[in-house]
Write a structure and sequence with these properties.
alpha/beta; four-stranded mixed sheet; disordered C terminus; binds S-adenosylmethionine
Length: 315
Amino acid sequence: MLLTYRQISFKIFHIMKRFVKKHLPRWLQSYFRRVYYHYPIVRRIYYLPANIRDALRWRGKKLAPPRSKIFVGDGDFELAGQEFLGYFTDLCGLGPKENILEIGSGIGRMAIPLTNFLSLEGSYVGMDIVAEGIEWCRKKITPLFPNFTFFQSDIYNYQYNSRGRCRAGEYRFPFADASFDFVFLTSVFTHMLPADVDHYLAEISRVLRPGGRCLVTYFLLDDAVRAALQTGRHHMKYPYEDCLVIDPQMPEASISHPEKRIRELYLKYGLAISEPVRYGNWCGREEFLSSQDIVIAMKTMSLKKEKTGPKTSAN
Ligand SMILES: C[S@@+](CC[C@H](N)C(=O)[O-])C[C@H]1O[C@@H](n2cnc3c(N)ncnc32)[C@H](O)[C@@H]1O
């Protein structure tokens, strides 16, 4: 089977990445990570040849950001969006007329495939803390799809917005209670600290209508996963509060949360988990759905009713 140029370059990139992760001292990796995220000019230079090649190839006909602007991970940008659109429809029953909120919308990786799915009766709001990503989405997506809107919240995150003025743990989403049918976060709580995740789950529950659903990805820890991560080969091994992180100097670089705490939070905020949790292969699992663990839940009628009502799978 012949591989395309794109597949070959991905393979080479991942081999190099594995090599760097294995052989470069941790402090140097941490330094490079900070440079990569805090100085976008570095990405612009690094991806200049790819930008030129894509520009010549697509001539503005494709709705996708230039590679130098992509700060949301190094996987295949388009495939990741398509993959999650499948989970939204197949696992969450998302329909084209729903009101959707994406927290941590990055640079439109999930929004772009949704533009071909949502009808004009539906709506999408994307929120992120990185101004460049929001600007690109506003400029390229909203004019073509006016029911897609984007806004930036100037929230601090050491990796993504180290000059942010607000704290995630105190931020109230600017939406009325029960105003969304579906809320999702892909690869966002894997970059947020425990107290902030707690507060965001409360906010997600508040803005979801009763019966509304949410899909959130995590790196979830239990005893077996912790043991697997201690083999020494995995980089998610440095303790941070009750979590494990890959970079103690920048815990937001990648953070795994105990599943038990996350389940307690869902229960506390009236979010009934639709079992099973779809575990990912991030920690070396052989059976998996995606790379991260996927938790889908439904907002119960009210916290009060939940106590007396039938048991949910999260109880
Ligand atoms: C790995 S990227 C994923 C982006 C997007 N969800 C996707 O899948 O393409 C992590 C995202 O989380 C955002 N983020 C980090 N902390 C946040 C916070 N407190 N509130 C909202 N977004 C946040 C970052 O700005 C970044 O866009």
